[in-house]
Amino acid sequence: MPQTANCPRCQRAVAIPAVPSESAVVQCPLCQERFDLSEALDFVAETESQPLPPELIIISAGSEQSSGPTATAAGPGAPSSGGGASGDGPNEVRCPCCRQAFRLETLLVAETDEPLGQEAAARILGRGGSAEPAAEAGMRFDFGSAGDRGDHADFRLQLGGGERLPEPEGAFQFGAPIGASGNSVAGEARGAAARPRSRRERGGLNDLIGAVLGGAAGLLITYYMLNLIGGRRFDFLQVYLPGVKHTVAHRPDWLGGPPREPDGEADADAGDRTAAEDQPSAGAEIPPEAAGDGGQAHPPVAVDESPPPDASESATEALPPDAIGLVNPPEVSPDLFGAALRAVAEAMKPDSLNAEGYAAWCRLAEAATFVDRRGGGPQMQYRFEAVRRLLRDLDGEDFAKIGQEAGSRLADSGRTSDGILLVGTANKPNTPRGKGYLTTLQVAGTGERVVVVSPGILPIAQDDRLLLLGQIVDRPKEALHGLDTELPQVIWSGMVLKLLSPTAENPDG
Length: 509
Hints:
Elements: E1 3-6, E2 13-15, E3 25-27, E4 34-36, H1 37-41, E5 45-46, E6 57-60, E7 92-94, E8 101-103, E9 108-109, E10 114-115, H2 118-125, H3 134-137, E11 139-142, E12 156-159, H4 185-194, H5 199-202, H6 205-230, H7 270-278, H8 309-318, E13 325-326, H9 334-347, H10 355-370, H11 378-392, H12 396-411, E14 419-433, E15 436-443, E16 449-454, E17 465-474, H13 476-479, E18 480-481, E19 489-499, H14 502-505
Parallel strand pairs: 16-19
Antiparallel strand pairs: 1-2, 1-5, 3-4, 3-6, 7-8, 9-10, 11-12, 13-18, 14-15, 14-17, 15-16, 17-19
Helix pairs in contact: 9-10, 9-11
């Protein structure tokens, strides 16, 4: 009865061959480990199970091998004890992965887990009991490429006719078929997996840079669309945007600079034009503001400081050659005007107007009043547009601060500059006096009244709320020619902008 035992190395079942001595050296066909047969006999057991496990391979017959020519017959597929070194030598093959030598007939078939046997080995080698050569038998080995011999997974035996044996979980596997190029499909797949990924797949830096650039481009497009659709109120960056009308004033000199505008034409956006349409004419009567408002409750809507065409023509005709004016007006260059404008722009960055910001506004008021507008060209038009834009940024909280600072400045005889920024309500506008016109202005916040002198008729009406840039004139009887007055102090008008009255917005309210 056949005997089986467990391999003392891998503990898997193997068949015990018939050998003359227990001291024979055998090799496990499963783990390829060599050991004395006596070690396996310690775990021997008789079995009637079919099929039998693979049989141990005899490497050396031991001490009784040379004492007699006894040859023990073995079962099908088992090598003879005396033919291991001579007669069956050509049947030995090597594993391409571990380079271990073994007999071809001991190769395990994955489907049955049995040795290949001598007959099949002879057919593969083209001799023995089969007259059919190996090529005609349609059976061949494929050991894969040299780069794929990392383990036993690429050791395959493929049969002709497209058949292949299933893949077991043992040390040797009958794997995937050979491709048309001669390389194994599994080897090609593993080679593709072993190739390093491309730079785009490996790193996330490109993705991060792409996300940042995409976000920046999205912000620029959004800013452009806001200015194109929403108008001037979204002009935060004050940069030139091609195709956006209100940003043409920011056009750099290397692109031609800001365009020259006709005299008396305001470059206002749609919101400013709508506000101007809602304003009453110069002669219309407007109910006075609510008591205590002081002109602080509503944001300003600026109109152009130039008078309407009819008012401008009448003022020009009324002025004689020796019209009213300052005896010694200060000289202001376009560069000085630009420097004062930049100082105000810097001072407007805080959330609310402070004392330093108001002082900068007063210096700008003097520069805007006496600068020669005819000598600056398109750049001068751009600067006055910038002044109007800064005035529109003032709100009710700033008006209260302007009223307090203006009262202190009017009473300060040691001021370094006579320019002043005022906000208040007009009373008895354009009253003729001498060669000029007088308008009483009630200053917002303090209620103090000051007299504004202008050489022509201002485009304002009774109770209009005004923002005024001008010059303080002490002892006007001496400092002004063409005006006979005993007033101790007046304001010489420079730039006047009218604020939208709440009663004009809602006449029925």
